[in-house]
């Protein structure tokens, strides 16, 4: 039985990774699960300099999920290279580094720093606010997405995965822009923008006012977007958004995702990724499926 999948020439032992920002670099989760069982570990966003993130409160529970406005708090590329990469290299898994920035130069600087590091794929978080464009995310404007993809691709030594924002009118338009600019793969969806009001305090539940909504409530939207993108471009896709069971993961794969990322579910159940891997294997045995690749995009 084959569970291996390939993303832009990088072979994963199975299609399961984690969603950036929900897993750190795996150090804490390594106390619960064997990280070597994962197809890949996707790190928290890494910027060229340390980012303090947004003021608190910056998370809130919501029906069927959670909201976060962490603001991509991270210790910066120097600490990441010194501390996190050596740790991940002790595990038998692929390393996907999530890259964030506030300008084209920020992204390029991080990508160039990672060029000689032993990491496998770069996931470019284009939901970051573009300071030069007045704060609109790079991923919400097709031209801005095309430009940032082209700039990063020109300097990247590893294959790049553009992480698409769902906060757009037509996600296929964004996917096509990333493909045209040379992206090697896509990941989707990032969080949906939402808001929660604390009626007792008569104020916003999150200091940032708006926050990214994740968890089971967004899964049907994510599956739909993955299906649309899979049928609009020829790039491999990492699907994500509310995955908490093997059945959820298989939905994304059948919609056209080559791999899937588990996010919010990790907070509720730190064993969830390995449970999903086991569940997919059991599904394949029960259905006499020899190769997981038979299931990718099988629903048309």
How large is the count of helical segments?
8
Secondary structure class reads alpha/beta
Q: What distance lies between the first and last C-alpha atoms, to the nearest angstrom?
A: 24 Å
Give the biggest beta sheet: 8 strands, parallel
- Mean of residue pLDDT values: 96
- Binned strand content: 15-25%
Coarse morphology: globular
Q: How many discrete structural domains? A: 1
Question: Using DSSP, what is the number of strands?
Answer: 16
| Gyration radius, rounded | 18 Å
Largest beta sheet: strand ordering = 3-16-15-10-9-8-7-4
Output the helix-strand order: EEEEEEHEHEHEHEEEEEHEHEHH
Assign the CATH superfamily: Aldolase class I
Q: What is the CATH architecture descriptor?
A: Alpha-Beta Barrel
**How much helix, percentage-wise, in residues?**
25-40%
User: Could you name the ranges where pLDDT drops below 50 across 5 or more consecutive residues?
Assistant: none
- For the record, what CATH class applies? Alpha Beta
CATH topology: TIM Barrel
Explain briefly what this protein structure is.
The chain is an alpha/beta fold and 300 residues long.
Q: Please, could you describe this protein's structure?
A:
The protein is α/β, with parallel strands linked by helices and 300 residues long. The protein has a single domain, classed as Aldolase class I (TIM Barrel). It contains eight helices and 16 strands. The protein has helices at 77-88, 104-114, 142-155, 171-180, 219-230, 246-255, 265-268, 272-286; strands at residues 5-7, 10-12, 16-18, 40-42, 59-62, 65-68, 94-99, 121-125, 160-163, 185-188, 192-195, 197-198, 203-204, 210-214, 237-240, 259-262. The strands form four sheets. An eight-stranded parallel sheet has the order 3-16-15-10-9-8-7-4. A four-stranded antiparallel sheet has the order 5-6-14-11, with no helix packed on it. A two-stranded antiparallel sheet has the order 1-2. It is globular and about 50 Å long. It starts with a strand and ends in a 14-residue tail after the last helix.
């Amino acid at each position: 039985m084959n569970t291996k999948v390939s993303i832009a020439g990088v072979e994963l032992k199975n299609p399961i990774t984690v969603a950036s920002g929900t897993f750190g670099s795996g150090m804490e989760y390594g106390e619960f699960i064997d990280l070597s069982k994962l197809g890949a570990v996707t790190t928290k966003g890494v910027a060229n300099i340390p980012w303090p993130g947004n003021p608190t409160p910056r998370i809130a529970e919501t029906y069927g999920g959670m909201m976060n406005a962490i603001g991509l708090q991270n210790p910066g590329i120097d600490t990441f290279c010194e501390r996190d990469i050596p740790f991940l290299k002790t595990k038998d898994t692929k390393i996907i580094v999530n890259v964030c920035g506030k300008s084209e130069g920020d992204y390029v600087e991080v990508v160039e720093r990672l060029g000689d590091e032993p990491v496998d794929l770069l996931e470019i978080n284009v939901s970051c606010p573009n300071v030069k464009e007045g704060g609109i995310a790079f991923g919400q404007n097709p031209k801005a997405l095309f430009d940032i993809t082209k700039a990063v691709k020109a300097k990247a030594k590893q294959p790049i995965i553009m992480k698409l924002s769902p906060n757009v009118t037509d996600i296929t338009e964004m996917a096509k822009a990333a493909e045209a600019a040379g992206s090697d793969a896509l990941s989707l969806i990032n969080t949906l923008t939402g808001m929660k009001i604390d009626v007792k305090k008569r104020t916003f539940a999150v200091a940032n006012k708006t926050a990214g909504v994740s968890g089971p409530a967004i899964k049907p939207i994510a599956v739909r977007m993955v299906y649309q993108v899979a049928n609009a471009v020829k790039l491999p896709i990492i699907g994500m958004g509310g995955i908490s069971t093997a059945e959820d993961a298989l939905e994304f794969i059948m919609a056209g995702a080559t791999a899937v990322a588990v996010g919010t579910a990790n907070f509720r159940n730190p064993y969830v990724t390995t449970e999903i891997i086991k569940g997919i294997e059991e599904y394949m045995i029960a259905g006499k499926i020899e190769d997981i690749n038979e299931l990718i995009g099988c629903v048309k």
